[in-house]
Amino acid sequence: MSLDQRSQTSRRGHTMLLAGLQIAITLGIFGFLASQWGMNPFMDAFRLLPIWIFPAAAVLGGVGVLTQALRWRVIARHHRISIGVGPAVARCWQAAFLNGVLPGGLAGDALRAADDSSDAKVEASGSALRRAFAAMAAERLMGTAVVFVAAGLTLLLLAPLAGLAALGVATAAVVVAWRWLKPLSRRDVIHVVLLSGTGWAAFAALFALTILAVTPEIPLAWAPGLAAVAIAGMSVPLGFGGWGPREAAAAWAFSLAGFVPHLGVTASISYGLLALASTLPGAIILALRLLPRVERARQVREQRDESA
Length: 308
Fold this sequence. Notes:
Layout: H1 3-37, H2 40-47, H3 53-77, E1 81-83, H4 85-101, H5 107-114, E2 120-122, H6 128-158, H7 160-181, H8 186-214, H9 223-234, H10 245-256, H11 261-278, H12 280-307
Antiparallel strand pairs: 1-2
Helix pairs in contact: 2-11, 3-4, 3-6, 3-8, 3-11, 4-5, 4-12, 5-6, 6-7, 6-8, 6-9, 8-9, 8-11, 9-10, 10-11
């Protein structure tokens, strides 16, 4: 086996190990939650979702994807990468679907940055792949910063130390992202922050609607704060596609607010189902983008076999 083959095998092994660990963490969290409150929160999450909330989830999820795509375009433009609104939305929707069904919640974004399709124009100078990952990382980090600012401000009233820790995470995200945001003008930085806030508001509104639908005993005034903490938990790349840490964070947030924790588990699982449903257009986009490549690979293989 050559050195390159050994290196590839090692990387593949590390990836599989990390994915297995993330799945184990998710199952461990769900096992702990089930041991505390039984299976009722999980069953209620499926049983109590009304039909009317799915179109609302599609709209709010679409707003979230659109704001992410616009934010990405602003940053990518300053890294000499030009991509249209339609292709950017398509890539972000595809990434959202993959993030929701793969461990860690980052695989879709990695593919979005590494995609070599012809729907983006990249200037030849420098490393195109490095610049693509820089733009994607800066975009994700700014979204993460807004998520943890919202959670931190909420938690300052309920758990001050946790609130300060969340604000610290937000600050760290901005510091890391700043090296890739420096080329942006002040106006563009403000644009990115506003888009990040709008995207967060769309997801928080979906969580608030979920609380209204499946846990109506929770006063609606509490919904934005509870959503802020749960969404921050979902942003921690430990579980499988956001599952696990989100439910633990929701249960904790509900208990801090004086509500029964298992209601937070129910609301969080229902939100996860709605969020996943809202990314299904990304599955269609993924299929449409993969089929031509699969067909080309089949043709190349047939030509190789005929020449052999």
